[in-house]
Amino acid sequence: MRQWKRVLGIVLAWCALSSVCAMGAESTVEKRDQESWKGTETKLMASHIAVDTTVTKYGVSWYQPKEYVSYRIWVDNTTNNSMRVTITDPQGRIRTFSVPAHGNKSYVGNGVESGTYRLSFSTSNGVLSGTVRVRVSDVALS
Length: 142
Hints:
The structure is a single chain. It contains one helix and eight strands. It has one helix at residues 2-37; strands at 47-54, 60-64, 70-77, 83-88, 94-99, 104-110, 115-123, 130-137. It starts with a helix and ends in a 5-residue tail after the last strand.
């Protein structure tokens, strides 16, 4: 019986010692991880859909708020011809991109100014069909 008590005592001592060592190691790792995150800040992105409509000969426009520095234009072209998309910014500067027939394409503007932006659409035969969406964001988009 004494032999049994001695073995049990040794096993319990070993378990207690290994638990203390594991806890110490875990707190060291946790502290190191906390140190590596010091001074970092998580910022949530604010964005919303400013335009979600069909492509028409009248085009679309949206207002880019001052606190929103980026936009993403997505166009789905459902025609048989390539579609030319023209972006006019608040200062009258023009940018263009093309969307292939039965395809879609995105265009991103970062570091943009606030104001009213206008999109116009054209194809070689004048037939327009598809969808356009514009998302505005307070952080740079890719």
